[in-house]
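Dear colleague,

Following up on Tuesday's group meeting, I ran the structure prediction for the eight-component complex that the binding team flagged. I've pasted the input sequences exactly as they went in, so you can double-check that nothing got truncated or mislabelled along the way. The structure tokens for the whole assembly follow below. Feel free to forward this to whoever is handling the docking comparison.

Inputs:
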Amino acid sequence: MQEQIKKLLQAIQQGKVTVEEGMEQLKELPFKDLGFAKVDNHRALRQNHPEVIFCQGKTPQQIKEIVGYLAKNSNNILASRASLEAYEAIKEVCPEAEYHALARMVVVNRKPLQLNKGTILVVSAGTADLPVAEEAAITAEIMGNRVERLYDVGVAGLHRLLAHLDKLRKANVLVVVAGMEGALASVVGGLVSRPVIAVPTSVGYGANFHGLSALLCMLNSCAAGVGVVNIDNGFGAGRLAAIINEDAR
Amino acid sequence: MQEQIKKLLQAIQQGKVTVEEGMEQLKELPFKDLGFAKVDNHRALRQNHPEVIFCQGKTPQQIKEIVGYLAKNSNNILASRASLEAYEAIKEVCPEAEYHALARMVVVNRKPLQLNKGTILVVSAGTADLPVAEEAAITAEIMGNRVERLYDVGVAGLHRLLAHLDKLRKANVLVVVAGMEGALASVVGGLVSRPVIAVPTSVGYGANFHGLSALLCMLNSCAAGVGVVNIDNGFGAGRLAAIINEDAR
Amino acid sequence: MQEQIKKLLQAIQQGKVTVEEGMEQLKELPFKDLGFAKVDNHRALRQNHPEVIFCQGKTPQQIKEIVGYLAKNSNNILASRASLEAYEAIKEVCPEAEYHALARMVVVNRKPLQLNKGTILVVSAGTADLPVAEEAAITAEIMGNRVERLYDVGVAGLHRLLAHLDKLRKANVLVVVAGMEGALASVVGGLVSRPVIAVPTSVGYGANFHGLSALLCMLNSCAAGVGVVNIDNGFGAGRLAAIINEDAR
Amino acid sequence: MQEQIKKLLQAIQQGKVTVEEGMEQLKELPFKDLGFAKVDNHRALRQNHPEVIFCQGKTPQQIKEIVGYLAKNSNNILASRASLEAYEAIKEVCPEAEYHALARMVVVNRKPLQLNKGTILVVSAGTADLPVAEEAAITAEIMGNRVERLYDVGVAGLHRLLAHLDKLRKANVLVVVAGMEGALASVVGGLVSRPVIAVPTSVGYGANFHGLSALLCMLNSCAAGVGVVNIDNGFGAGRLAAIINEDAR
Amino acid sequence: MQEQIKKLLQAIQQGKVTVEEGMEQLKELPFKDLGFAKVDNHRALRQNHPEVIFCQGKTPQQIKEIVGYLAKNSNNILASRASLEAYEAIKEVCPEAEYHALARMVVVNRKPLQLNKGTILVVSAGTADLPVAEEAAITAEIMGNRVERLYDVGVAGLHRLLAHLDKLRKANVLVVVAGMEGALASVVGGLVSRPVIAVPTSVGYGANFHGLSALLCMLNSCAAGVGVVNIDNGFGAGRLAAIINEDAR
Amino acid sequence: MQEQIKKLLQAIQQGKVTVEEGMEQLKELPFKDLGFAKVDNHRALRQNHPEVIFCQGKTPQQIKEIVGYLAKNSNNILASRASLEAYEAIKEVCPEAEYHALARMVVVNRKPLQLNKGTILVVSAGTADLPVAEEAAITAEIMGNRVERLYDVGVAGLHRLLAHLDKLRKANVLVVVAGMEGALASVVGGLVSRPVIAVPTSVGYGANFHGLSALLCMLNSCAAGVGVVNIDNGFGAGRLAAIINEDAR
Amino acid sequence: MQEQIKKLLQAIQQGKVTVEEGMEQLKELPFKDLGFAKVDNHRALRQNHPEVIFCQGKTPQQIKEIVGYLAKNSNNILASRASLEAYEAIKEVCPEAEYHALARMVVVNRKPLQLNKGTILVVSAGTADLPVAEEAAITAEIMGNRVERLYDVGVAGLHRLLAHLDKLRKANVLVVVAGMEGALASVVGGLVSRPVIAVPTSVGYGANFHGLSALLCMLNSCAAGVGVVNIDNGFGAGRLAAIINEDAR
Amino acid sequence: MQEQIKKLLQAIQQGKVTVEEGMEQLKELPFKDLGFAKVDNHRALRQNHPEVIFCQGKTPQQIKEIVGYLAKNSNNILASRASLEAYEAIKEVCPEAEYHALARMVVVNRKPLQLNKGTILVVSAGTADLPVAEEAAITAEIMGNRVERLYDVGVAGLHRLLAHLDKLRKANVLVVVAGMEGALASVVGGLVSRPVIAVPTSVGYGANFHGLSALLCMLNSCAAGVGVVNIDNGFGAGRLAAIINEDAR
């Protein structure tokens, strides 16, 4: 595209194309060819980020093909919501892939990123929240972060959480994963002064309404500094935490 | 009624009434006259409980009339959701009435009940929750309970709550009042081993949805021993706490 | 930890550590090590309560491991939402475990608690509500309570309920379990003067919306003295009833 | 229109129009002109029913004009949700109009209908439900029904309701009006064997959600023979009860 | 029970039992035996109504036992939401039972009731609504009603419905069954002057939200004379229609 | 019916039937026979539209029978939400049927319609939206439209969408298919000046609530010219687009 | 901007700026200035469309300023949701503005557009729906369309609607406005073969939930060819109808 | 407290208190006195943060008192949701207070913080979103951040947003404020690689349901790196953005 504009300007310079014709041609250039190199190159700048595949609803065969394609161009790949079958299909085209069963994630980490300075702490309330917590932790790790875990510290047993006050306070970014009433995000948010990414989970039953109770609780947190992602969206929380943890410009 | 049946049986015994006629007459006795003396007298047994009027949606004139009527038969009266106008109307027929502006309650406590042994502790999260908290506290007081208050101890400043751990642990029944995310009920529930009555309030905005977030949070509490009442229902919580606090049979 | 503090104080006593250094070291001790003996020991005081496992979402193998661990330290164990497979896994590590199929509960009751004085009455509306009702009843029993059952007394056949008025009135705490419209809690609440724990169930279809109708009905009960727990939360209701039924302090 | 068809058939008879042309013309007649005399005349048959105006959202001036128009053709008129201002505007064009302040209804009953045989009983739970209950009662009355009222018999004081069992059982159709938890419909439905029209009201607060709790409760009624109308729709309930109470064909 | 009271009265008459003993014995009779003969006998009066079992959530074995028990005392039995397996279990104890596969109903009609005078018309919108429509129709039939069916007349093809205007107008009670937008109830309600029982079905997808759209549509019907039952509650609609269709008292 | 009216008019012409008798007979003809030829013939005018079967909830056998019947009268048939089994059943009676696996559609296109002038562009956000997008595209095609596809152009990668600005601007009607947040409809609606039919899909999880998020997003679109259909209703969108794309009258 | 580019190209032509410098300057121009002439000019093409202001939430003063600004560049202006005060403020800067009180719209139509060929028919159910219907009608008119109105034809009085079948069938686009149950859209959609834009209104009460019932009803319409806009969005419906009614490209 | 411990340790040192007694006394100290200096001092570390008052629901008098109290200890104060009356009351005790009418905020900025390195960009969709956007911007500013604003760049006019691509890309943290469909967050999230804080607003009507549509849209954003706060919570967004923008530890 650059070339195309260059040729046009040269033609104007050389008098082969009039100014009026030139303006007409500029208008006709497709949108992307003008401005959107600009749009796209921010991806290039961040090229070390892994390529991501959301496997839910895709067949192992489809996943295998997508990973096969990506593996040619990317060093690092992250497949979320991946079944064991999906993993086995992936291994055929990408033998170095590793499977994290609890998080249901497949990780290809050929060229690990240099670690960011701060630590990301993933805190979770109950054992049933672990898959989402691990999804967040692994996502943050492959994006170049030191991740610590603080699991099974629900608010009904406050002393378990408070015993780790130092760990909470040392983290640069916190991801708080909780289902049921989701109160952990508010409690943690009140104890720290760094950003808290809250992840409601669908863990619970009855008036939990598939995570709605935790979601609303977190959105209404009286603690400042809490941002919320979608129910069960461990990946999104891990990614947001990673972006925050990057060195500021 | 007992008399009525007795006479009937005597008449049968004396042959003045045949068995068939007797059966017919038994059927004709109104329902209440048979079984429902029994239904009703449990109220008589508990006659020291105050009579209660829910003022919302009633005119001061209507409230005045109702209180005027009750004041003839009851020692103690509790008018909830009462405006200042309602209070002034009540004073005309019941000069000893007192107004609790914050709780929007009018109290007539002519014959204070003997105090129950245990203490009821009313805990609230934010200042905006105070009207509901006071409604609960005053209700419990007029029903013969020692009530302590622990206000402004929301979970975002956990140390304020934990500084009163002894108070929390000494209470026999706890009423926890919180809006927004309502997480306080879970935290308190995890710190004590006595019953917690949770009252969600409509305090908040946005995804609070008029108290829904606090309600769902409290229903999904991971702490055992928490029972929930309707949004903003301080009266109901105070009453339930009072009933629990009565000496067991 | 106790040891750690003891040594510190001895060192101060012996002049090996100055007062200032001692204060510094006290601050550095992890949170739990200072205050939280105190936080934790309320559990110790109540040590006769059974340990509880919520089995839903755990594999039989996981459940077996947890029970195996708990069985070393606890006399009494309660596993809720347990399938037959879970029970069989538990029996391998804990042969005295009993299975209550209807309530889907496994009970290990090695050292039955002394019975509280009052009676807990579990009332249920329809046969489909029985699993939740039994969950509540069994929970209350293992926590040391005399439990009576009054089942299949839905409000559409009021005479069945009223025939047991004496039983209702004699109970110290009542648990009312109902699905569909959940009206039983209000009716029972109007007949008794002791606390009523209402448990909405997800029994029903259509505009029941998985228990929402019963939940809202119970929260809006016009009867005083009703506290509500989560939909289908028989365990929570049983536990709250048991705590209420303990002798007041 | 009748005339139009008549002329066409006469023209065919007289040979001025061929059969084919006649068929063509029949097709061209507007829809109503062919078949819909038939559609409409069922209204004619029922001409004694009052004309009804829903006043909410209309200005007194608009209401006055509509009533003025109707008053020329109808004997009986019913204006629902009418303010006092609306009533005063109506009186200018219809001096015999009466105002029922509680029900917010204006009634013009120039030619009272002959009474149907059965009785309609309107039952209501609390005093705040009275406007809706009266709306139902007055609607049924103007449609030619004997209406009895049984008010303030909420389920939390069951004995008040049961004291009137005979009245409940004698009614041919029952309208049950209740807010908050709406349990009255189920209880009444279980006591009678005639149709129950349930009207949820928006009376309540918090988790009542403007009548949703009562609505869901009534829709999920475990009692057979209950049909539900919209929240606060006293008019609709009265009308449905009246239609049911008409002598069967 | 009648017998029991009779014997008691005879014993009093014969002097075998004193009046005081008689009163004592009367008190001891369970509630129903005193007052609830009256409560209960309305069922006796209507004894031809079939006994009803809601099979959903019961095992074939349980259903078989219940039917076996009922078959000893009742002439007519109706089992709703019955699978083929349930039917086969029922046949073992009740060989004359018939299965209506579409309606998922088992019918035992040993002593058909005399037919009521009016006709009940069951109208349905789409083929997917047929199971619910048939449930309503069969329920009404076994309760002694002449039932006509008008199926597949959804509002998107209005001419199909209007072609049967006479049938609609001749019916004494109408049951209208519709999913998706549920508009059929309003349209039918506007065409007839007899009661319409509207049954929303869960037929549809997306913003149907399992029948919510049809339910809300029917509750908001601008046609007078429409009562609504729960989503998919064909049985309830059939029963309400049957009760309405009985000759008025 | 035409015949019936013809005979009647002939009889009038021949004097065998008087005008009055003729009018009487016209009234007696069933509704459809008078006016509804007219109602129906708009379908006749549009006879090239395919007959449509919604297969969800029907057995392959039922589908086969319906298609077998339709295949005698219609040239073109469209079966939506059809499984492979349904397709194989259809092929037995209609061997020329084709199966579009992704769209879950069976198409019988014996007599392809002449193409409308404008182009319909189907735009979709993610790969998981493809089945709905294809349902829309295939529906529009069989109804005689030139359809272009622009897939996988979600708003998170805006450059992919903007690269096809010309395609977007050339389309006469656009169908925009998106799940999750459904923002694509607003963005596309802001870029074009022709009608946009927005189809929310149920693709997503958590606070997506089965398509509710995309539905609400699309209904609240700040772009003018957007009409919304039901969640996942690709067929409805394709049909509406096709109707819009027909040449205006 | 055009000027800016022109000058740049002229400078290149005249050799005052090199090609390289020219490219650099092109890149520096704000995005819109390069590519978005193209993005924007589709608005230019449609320049006869009125400028639109949504007045709700703006002060009369703010509205006056905006209109004053627009009035300098646009011939036609449409202000929706405008109060009388807003209108009076507008008149000060734009004396030719007209106020449509019912639709709450201010119209400045200095240069009426040439009329499109087809007719847009706005159909509404009840009188309370008129403001929304008029908003749609006036919007369509100012955008150059022949608009007909068919008001007060709710489905409960079907004959009123059917009497205008010809009008319905002659329309090229239909806008159907209905509150309460919103069934009119389905009925109209079944009678015509042209696009139907359905506008749910918030007219109603109770289970209408501020328009939710009508919205869901319309989204679930079983009639093909219905697109839905937001509740009360008469403007959006009018605009979509106008765009559809434009001659196809 | 420090003193209390000091004295205790000195007493041990001096042999006045034994080690065992010392341990006993340590246990008896209130919770806060031991560990919670530690809990609290993280606030001390961050003491430059302004004190915050949420004014909604407080009287001007109450606000004045709180500010008067805070003004003695804090340099900087932020009062959100403050009316003009509130501001005037504040000025009496704090004359240097400034009022930001649009944001409804009162700011006391006696000792402005040193600016963080990165820039926070606040982006908003429509003019009605400005109060929330300004609330976020002013909050971030008083917390020591360089804030830029990019307003009125809704997705329906994409070119307005894209014209500022450089600004978007240069920001270190972005706050995106949007009502109605809330799509702006996804679009911005797709264009940048830094954290996006999304604030749904309650701007809109109808199916917006007071901000629900924007909230769900943002939670379901397909763009990574988006965290959501409560509806209309500009303050929370500003604060979270400020915390993120602080230099990492």
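The radius of gyration of chain F is 23 Å.

Cheers,
M.
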